[in-house]
Amino acid sequence: MPESWANLGIDLLIEPAGRHRRAGLERGLRDAIQSGRLRPGTPLPPSRTLARDLGVARNTVAQAYAQLVAEGWLAARRGSGTRVADRVLAPAATEEAADAAARIRHDLRPGRPDVSMFPRAAWIGAARRALAKAPDQALVYGDPRGPHELRRALADYLGRVRGVRTTPDRIVVCSGFVQALGLVCRVQRGRGARRIGVEAFGLPHHRGVAAACGLAVTPLPVDAGGAVLAGLADADVALLTPAHQFPLGVPLAPERRRLAVEWAAATDGLIVEDDYDGEFRYDRQAVGAMQALAPERVVYAGTASKSLAPGLRLGWLAAPAHLVADLTEAKRLADAGTGVLDALALAELLTSGIYDRHVRRCRLVYQRRRERLVAILRREVPEARIGGVAAGLHVLVELPECVSEADVIERAARNGLAVEGLDAYRFGAVAAHRPALVVGYATPPEHDFTTAVARLCAAIGAAG
């Protein structure tokens, strides 16, 4: 029997197997249930409807239903039709995956905000207001850079909070930082760039994005003053985290900021400024965006992933004027534009002041968690050195002498704690550093925070 689409209330491809129609239909439905494509409680269409959709006799469907009811796959009740039986479970995860999931109960990995603080009610209200105000034309294919309302709101906000010098026409809204970086790398590669310098400690995925765009990736050493820029001699592009180096947590020293923009001006190079958590600072004044020093040499990249939630997939570029057209075309070719409804909701949050209030609330919560984390570590593991505490959502915990990152991570995992070592972010032979852990403090829920940190201390102490 050929493949057919059946109207089951959801789109589902039924593939009856074998030459016998009834047996084939039974097998196709059974496979759909076993594979999880038909979930428990899913209603099935009346036998007459399914028979018409599949081109078979009604009795064939009725008999198949009856057989699957007898086997326990389906449940039939007079007046409510036939459904997938509630007791039928989706396939269990593999034993290894299930064991791993069961073991990890506490999470201190970096790069993850506390999404339980996402302002759901405020977001719903902002989305409702934005949609009510939006003209019908806003819902068609529009400017690949994103709706003007968000670009205008971002230009105002970034200038006020991060010191970014830009205008709405220079902003490109993206589906998160990863897409933003990919757009810049593709445009620069098309303009003849061959090599990008990246900090020797950083996210491997970002290096992968640059390499996939055809750029050779060169590591830049990182010390207490941030990236060491001597390695930029042969580069065309530099990817830097000036406000809060990830993962070491240091800001780029003022003299190195000047050297970076001087390098870009002298070589016709381009700097990509990854300002991934610039809104979260605690014990110091905010370090402003480096973009303000040279708006025509620096592409500023920001994101809502840390301030709101990664799942929104909202980021932005504030680009030099000479790059806007090429970045806009690259964005158009990539996906024709980021989703307009979420973009308009974010614009409403920004212009109403709700976004500012949300960030301040999160900053206070994260600061208290950071203080608790640092206090417990200093009390329980005084030999460890703690750095990068002035901003962001993570700290760097340099381990005591003779303590291995791998040993601590393994011991922590056996006690249900997920934590990452600095070695996971290392790139190239120039990246020498004392063994350390990159500890995120945003993710654990409040009731679990002390337990997670206690297990971390125990893992470090046991590995010594």
Which sheet architecture does the biggest sheet show?
A: 7 strands, mixed
How many runs of DSSP E, i.e. beta strands?
19
Classify the secondary structure makeup into a structural class. Answer: alpha/beta
Q: What is the count of helical runs? A: 14
Instruction: Name the beta content range.
Output: 15-25%
Radius of gyration, CA atoms, in whole angstroms: 27 Å
The portion of residues assigned to helices is 40-55%
Shape: globular
Gap between N and C termini, in Å? Answer: 66 Å
List the helices and strands and how they pair.
Blueprint: E1 4-7, E2 11-14, H1 21-34, H2 47-54, H3 58-71, E3 74-77, E4 81-84, H4 95-103, E5 106-107, H5 120-133, H6 148-161, E6 171-174, H7 176-190, E7 195-199, H8 204-212, E8 216-220, E9 222-223, E10 226-227, E11 237-240, H9 254-267, E12 270-274, E13 298-303, E14 315-318, H10 321-335, H11 340-352, H12 354-380, E15 385-387, E16 394-398, H13 405-414, E17 417-418, E18 420-421, E19 436-440, H14 449-463
Parallel strand pairs: 5-17, 7-8, 7-11, 11-12, 12-13
Antiparallel strand pairs: 1-2, 3-4, 6-14, 9-10, 13-14, 15-16, 16-19, 18-19
What is shown here, in short?
This protein is α/β, with parallel strands linked by helices and 464 residues long. It has 14 helices and 19 strands.
Please explain how this structure is put together:
The protein is of the alpha/beta class and 464 residues long. The chain contains 14 helices and 19 strands. The strands form six sheets. It has a seven-stranded mixed sheet with strand order 6-14-13-12-11-7-8, sandwiched between helices. Strands 15-16-19-18 form a four-stranded antiparallel sheet, with helices on one face. Helix 1 crosses helix 3 (58-71) and helix 7 (176-190) packs parallel to helix 8.
